[in-house]
Amino acid sequence: MGWHEVPGADALGEDEAMGVMLGERPVALCRSGGAFYALHNVCTHQFALLSEGYVEDGCLECPLHQGRFDLKTGAPRGAPVTEPVRVYPVKAEGGKVYVDLGD
């Protein structure tokens, strides 16, 4: 029940992010190193959609103040970010991508 298909994920290029609403949750789906990652799409520093930022060096950079979050753990990797962002498990099966929101 917790797995949600991400529509359009197959069009996501390397080192790109896209924002999607899965149920009631904003999710940033990213592709880096050939793998998919899913993070909560709102920066923990100040309201900004992370999916509008940049994917680089295993991090997602916030477009507002350039704080960076680790794609695998959600840990802050650059000021002014000090609080981690939530990450969600991702799986790819049969050409489709799914995110587990834990609901």
Please tell me about this protein's structure:
- By secondary structure, the protein is mostly beta strands.
- It has a single domain, classed as Rieske Iron-sulfur Protein (3-layer Sandwich), CATH 2.102.10.10.
- Helices cover 0% and strands 46% of the residues.
- The chain has no helices and 11 strands.
- It has strands at 3-5, 16-22, 25-32, 35-40, 54-56, 59-61, 68-70, 76-78, 87-88, 90-93, 96-100.
- The chain has a 4-stranded antiparallel β-sheet with strand order 2-3-4-9, with no helix packed on it. Strands 5-6-7-8 form a 4-stranded antiparallel β-sheet, with no helix packed on it.
- It is globular.
- 35% of the residues are buried.
- The mean pLDDT is 95.
State the main characteristics:
single chain; 103 residues; mainly beta; Rieske Iron-sulfur Protein; 4-stranded antiparallel sheet; 11 strands
